[in-house]
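Hey, I'm writing a tutorial for new members on how sequence and structure tokens pair up, and I'd like a real worked example in the thread rather than a made-up one. If someone can provide the structure for the chain below, I'll link this post from the tutorial.
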Amino acid sequence: MVLEALGSAILGAILAWAAHRRLAHRLPDRRLVLSTGVVGALFGAFLTHSALGPGHLPLILIGAVAVGAASLSLLLRPVGRLRRRSAAV
């Protein structure tokens, strides 16, 4: 269990670092991105461990990375400005 938590936290931090390095112009502050990646991966490991049970370390780490990536994707901002159209024509 400790190895799962430590491995998922490390993978979440690496994923968040890579996302911030590649998409820094579309993400908020680095501290928020790193903490979101780690917490998302830990939650993913918890969720996958609860679903599969102990003894499935590779699958649990894959689940941790998937949930960490999904939580990081929620922080992305749009590339361009949003164009709002007037309701009155």
